[in-house]
Every structure is written in C-alpha cells, then in structure tokens.
Design goal:
- By secondary structure, the chain is α+β, with helices and mostly antiparallel strands.
- A hairpin with a 5-residue loop joins strand 9 and strand 10.
- Helix 1 packs antiparallel against helix 2.
Length: about 200
C-alpha cells in the first residue's frame, strides 16, 4: 500500500498506542455494507488529544485521512483506502442522562443505542432514531432523520474539533442544520460529542 512503512507505523503507534493501530485493515469489517478493500492504516484513538495529534501528523506528512464512525452508508472501494482511517470507536462511546432531560453523548456512540436508552429512561423525542445504524457523530454531520424526526429537533449543542485544532462548542442554531446537511458535512471539522434536550415521554410514544 502507498503509505505503509515502518517509520509511519511507529509514529502512529507512538500517538495512539500500538494496540490501536492496524495495518492493511479490511474495511469490509467496518462498514454496514460489508464491502471495501484494505486501508493502509486503521487507527482507533482513545482521546481527543490523540485525534488532534493524528490529524496533525497526517497533515504534516501529507497523508490522506478519513474520520470514521459506525461505517453506515459508507462505500469503500475494493481497491481499499490509501491513507489513515481514524476510527472514533469505543474510546468515543458513551452517554450521560441527566434528570432534567439533558443527555450528553460521545460521537462514537450508536444512535440507535441512544434512542433506546433515553426511551428506557422515560424520555421521548428520539423514537424515530431507534433503527438508524449510524453513530451519533455521523448523525450530527448528516442531520440524520426518519419518520418525521431529525437531529435538528433534539440537539442542544455540539462540541467539535475545528480545522485549526481548537475545540469549539456551538448551539444547534449555529450548526446550519438542514436536510442531510450541516457545517460539518463539507469540512474537516470532527464532531466529538453533543448534548440533547429531551422531554418526558408522552402516551403516544
């Protein structure tokens, strides 16, 4: 593969830990369509700082990179991906449900899992998302929706890594959310976590 060599492998391992760096990883294992050839590198950082360092390294070395969540609706060529796949996986999964209906969700969390968890906690507004296979971060990027609901209706704010490396939190009104679109979609901004504002479940839900 084009970008694989010992120096790069060592540099990526130094940033994210050797156990979190896979070389020539089959992308078919990481997409919902179960297709895709090998990625030069598949790296699963465990912290925001590691994400920043990985992106800085890729930019400095002029290596293509792609931020990956649950791999839903992602088609990877059978020829694979020449560059670094940065996977926001278990290190970026989890949520906290507060008594006032505020829910903080990390980007790598399954959107469907969030929907089911808040429903179990007696909160509504998210039943439309129960069958969506993507990650929470991807849902923010795409303003995901189904059955008349969408992220725009439930998001309060999103914290993300700006292209200059700064960490920014913006209210939903400033995210330019529209049909399958946002300020994230055509940029290199990386969603880290978001906050939902939910209401108690109604009898209809």
């Amino acid at each position: 593969m084009m970008y694989v060599n010992e120096d790069r492998s060592a540099a990526l391992a130094a940033i994210a830990g050797a156990k979190n760096v896979a070389v020539k990883e089959e992308m078919a294992k990481h997409t919902t369509f179960r297709v895709g050839g090998e990625a030069d590198y598949f790296v699963s950082p465990e912290s925001t700082e590691q994400v920043k360092e990985l992106i800085d390294y890729c930019k400095r070395e002029e290596i293509p990179y792609y931020i990956l969540g649950n791999g839903s609706n992602l088609l990877v060529s059978d020829k694979g991906y020449e560059g670094v796949m940065i996977h926001l996986g278990s290190g970026f999964a989890g949520y906290t449900i507060m008594e006032d209906g505020t829910v903080t969700v990390k980007a790598g969390t399954s959107l469907g899992a969030v929907s089911r968890a808040v429903s179990k906690a007696g909160l509504g507004d998210m039943s439309w998302a129960s069958g969506i296979p993507g990650s929470f971060g991807g849902a923010c990027v795409m303003n995901a929706g189904a059955y008349g609901g969408e992220m725009k209706q439930v998001l309060k704010s999103v914290t993300y890594l700006e292209e200059d490396g700064s960490i920014v939190t913006k209210d939903v009104e400033d995210l330019n959310l529209s049909y399958r679109n946002s300020i994230f979609k055509h940029s290199k901004r990386v969603v880290l976590e978001g906050t939902l504002a939910l209401h108690p479940m109604t009898s209809e839900e």
